[in-house]
Design goal:
3 strands, binds flavin mononucleotide
Length: 125
Amino acid sequence: MGGYVSADQPSIIDDPSIKSGFYGAPTVCVVFTPVSFLYGVPDAFCCAENMVLAASELGLASCIIARGEDTFDTLLGLELMKKWGIPEGWIARCFVTLGYCEGGYPSPKERRAGRIKIIEQEEIL
Ligand SMILES: Cc1cc2nc3c(=O)[nH]c(=O)nc-3n(C[C@H](O)[C@H](O)[C@H](O)COP(=O)(O)O)c2cc1C
């Protein structure tokens, strides 16, 4: 069971009537990294974050989608990687969907209390 990202922005894990993890977006970007690089996962998601920031600047809606590895670990996935010329030893990490928003954006969520703890230097030593 998942938890809602927000009440007015249900994700596929919360709402069984949503049939595509890409939410019908007209454009889906895939972020690949070398499989052997230790920081491939954080690098890919930093890249995705930069992509969604750039998309917002351009007036596009976007969503970062996880589980690139599982999505491409299929016959079709391997076939597509070959067709697209993805080098051997590279792996899909995540996706960024892009499109124009239909309707309104979800309302901003309230910040949760107690999620940031500031440790003063004298508490460490
Ligand atoms: C690392 C990461 C992975 C995410 N993976 C998914 C995903 O698989 N499916 C999805 O619908 N949204 C995914 N999202 C988007 C989040 O669900 C959410 O919409 C986005 O982070 C905005 O959150 P906020 O409303 O708290 O600002 C992901 C976001 C991040 C940062």
